[in-house]
Amino acid sequence: MHTILDAITAMLVPACQQELVQRFRQIGFEYKADGSLVTEADLAMQAHMQQALAMAWPEFGFLAEEMRLEQQQALLSRPGSGLWCLDPLDGTSNYAMGIPYFATSLALIKDGQVVMGVVYDPLRDECFSAIRGEGAWLNGQPLCLHDKEYPSQAALAIIDFKRLPPALAASLVTDPPYKSQRSFGSVALDWCWMAAGRSHVYLHGQQNIWDYAAGQLVFEEAGGYSSTLQGEAVFSHKLEARSAVAALNKPLFDNWYQRLQD
Question: Beta strand 29-31 with 37-39: parallel, antiparallel or unpaired?
Answer without folding.
Answer: antiparallel
